[in-house]
Amino acid sequence: MKNSNSKYLLAALMMLSATAKAWNITVYASDGCPDTDDPAYYNGDDNLGCTENTAQHRCFILENMGDCWVSFYDSEDQCNGGGPQGDYGSVDEDQPISPDYNWDWYEIWGC
Questions:
Q1: 105 close to 65: Cβ distance less than 8 angstroms
Q2: Which residues lie below 8 Å from residue 18, measured CB to CB, with a gap of 6+?
Q3: 3-class DSSP assignment, residue 98
Q4: By three-state DSSP, how is residue 92 classified?
Q5: Fewer CB in 10 Å around end: N or C, the chain?
Q6: pLDDT one digit per residue (tens) for the chain, 111 residues
Q7: CATH number, domain at 55?
Q8: CB–CB of 30/59 below 8 Å?
Q9: Under a CB-based contact definition with an 8 Å cutoff, are residues 54 and 27 in contact?
Q10: Number of domains the chain is built from
């Protein structure tokens, strides 16, 4: 019986570590991330190269970033070779952030 419980515990811990690595970005069309918006959800569990933010965007909330960082860029060219408009990580989680710059592109790194 003890061996059987150990297998279940190990499986549960492996699932927990896999889900703990997942990053989530919720993007809102209005400043302040109001609950009335119909948000867009971006998520993953690893690095992500330059990606266009196609949703209407004025505010975002980060969750479960772990070691991952998100960098926002004004354009695809800037994302592929320029400096980011802003970088955010786990220290910025669970709070509405409304940047005062264009952030039409993003990438996830450091995962």
A1: no
A2: 45
A3: coil
A4: helix
A5: N
A6: 455 544 443 444 444 444 456 899 999 998 889 877 789 999 999 999 999 999 889 999 999 999 999 999 999 999 999 889 999 999 999 999 999 999 999 999 999
A7: 2.60.20
A8: yes
A9: no
A10: 1
